[in-house]
Request: fold
Amino acid sequence: MSDLTGRFASRVFNLSTMKQRLPKDTYKEMLRCIRDGQRLDLSVANIVANAMKDWAIEQGATHFTHWFQPMTGITAEKHDGFISPNGDGGIIMEFSGKELVKGESDASSFPSGGLRSTFEARGYTAWDPTSYAFIKDTVLYIPTAFCSYGGEALDMKTPLLRSMEAIDKQATRILRLFGHSDVKAITTVGAEQEYFLVDQSMVDAREDLMLTGRTLLGAKPPKGQELDDHYYGVIKPRVQAFMKELNDELWQLGILAKTEHNEVAPAQHELAPIFTTTNISVDHNQLTMELMQKVAHRHGMVCLLHEKPFNCVNGSGKHNNWSIATDTGVNLLDPGTTPYENAQFLLFLCAVIQAVDDYQDLLRISVATPGNDHRLGANEAPPAVVSMFLGDELSDVLAAIESESDYNGRDQQQLKIGVHVLPRFPKDSTDRNRTSPFAFTGNKFEFRMPGASLSMAKPNIVINTAVAESLRQYADALEDAADFTTTMHNIIRDTVRAHKRILFNGNGYDGGWIDEAQRRGLMNLPTTPDALAHLLDAKNVALFERHGVYSAAELRSRYEILLGNYTKVIHIEAETMIDMVNRAILPAVSDFSARLCSNATAKAGYAGTACGYEKARARELCRLSDEIYTGVNVLAEAVSAADRVDGTLDRAMHYKDDVVSAMANLRAACDTAESMMPAADWPYPSYIDILFSVR
Ligand code: ADP
Ligand code: MG
Reply:
């Protein structure tokens, strides 16, 4: 890869490209617009659009697209050519400022959750100049927000940008009180992405992988991840070739892909980029997921981003590393060295503690997908109960503040925030607990509940808004305070007192913790419908409305879409399973048991010949095939019954209670049958075939 520094971001219309290509005044206008989130004047937009078009055409682009993130959780695009007739039979290449900043699309088939009806289906896309345009293949991509005719957000980006604005507004109030008047607060995110790579032929041979992205059946393999020999193991040449090509593509798009390694499960890997501003990080993660799948395909593989492709094998998550910083580069979650810096750090830390406690339901909701329900609490990912890990040192400091007692780490002195210097917290000691949903890792928080396929917009909308709310309350109190230091000290002390139930440094995988959490009054929302039932709770609607992130109508539309999506996904899984069982598994089990029976009969012709295996196995398989037959009928009945239930929440609950459990019972019987059948007679590739398919 020659001249990587030259190739990096070579397909991005970023600040340095703008600086080269735009007149000085226009460039300055762009900078201002990016910093203040202001609209570009149309005359300026025309100049930018023209420069962007020339640059894109030089790079081989023929089309442009307004790239947006509808509520499906993935991205959407429609390509328009630059071509325009020149009047004498030829063409000219055109791209106007108007086309850059605003697009109109019919888009009536995107989920709107009742926000618009089809007869007024027009939607608008509006350029988000804080996320740079880029070229992929021969298309210029313009990152945009997607709204209805009436201005309601129909996407993930709009609320994310609003949440970033909300936290900026409140954080700068606090920063001003600490003497930092001309700074902007930005949130930063680094998303560690887990995924599986399997050979294409495996997916082609399995209806479940093809249609649902996960295996609905499959007996446990004799070897899975027990030996931990895959974790950080030597990367296989075929995977290495994939990673090399993927990195190159990502780097050209300015995505800071940094770390790659094998994960715990066979065929599982991880990619982590260097963190950046939240909305860019979210865009980049969407691109990363898309390119992972495309590049895998070129290498004859399939990249599975499902949260739980295989039973009995670790699923895939996506850690959301989050912090808040100033635009001058100061990380506000980095403990400082002076009393004032420490106080500021503790205040921001408390804002996060309070936010996570007050909006634990929203955090759980933000990661609620049918796939993720299989991971959370299954001893491979944090439980469905949200808690926070701070590490021993920081917990000791907070305990001392809370009880107004001596802090042992210091020389028996009462710690007064804003007056005393805190001890430095060794970073290592904050990163040992991998079982916590929300862990402080030295200078950032790591939210570990998101599943692999999730749009990172979702958790970050919640984190940003919830933290904005704590900061708002602190700023209200501090701006009016007669004695700033004492008020601040009291806020920190009172926050710890009021919210310490959310702090838990122990083992999150321990079953005892769930009981303890219940005693503490923390919410346990094991499944997606359980969680979504709380989305419209009054306090949640009030939070989003207060900070202008979602209107009540926008929130209700998310509720409808998410519940509808849950139901649809489980419905498709159930139908796929029914199809596989009826058309392949039952016939296979029946054929093989019949063969055993006829073998036993044949052997019986030779007096004294043992045929214990044939008889016993045939009996077991015949019993199992009856169990499978009953199970598939029970499942089919549960699906029809659920479809008759009215109301999106009730229907989702029925799918969860009746359909999911019927699938689990049916699966257990099928998997037992698989373990008794000759490999050649089982209609689908086994877990061994799939998990070790990439060599
Ligand atoms: P690990 O979780 O494997 O120990 P690291 O500490 O290297 O990994 O960081 C994991 C991710 O956290 C990376 O994407 C990194 O860029 C990101 N990260 C580091 N600092 C910050 C920060 N201040 N804000 C957001 N993300 C961060
Ligand atoms: Mg991590």
The pocket of magnesium ion (ligand 2) is lined by residues 192, 319, 446 (CB under 6 Å).
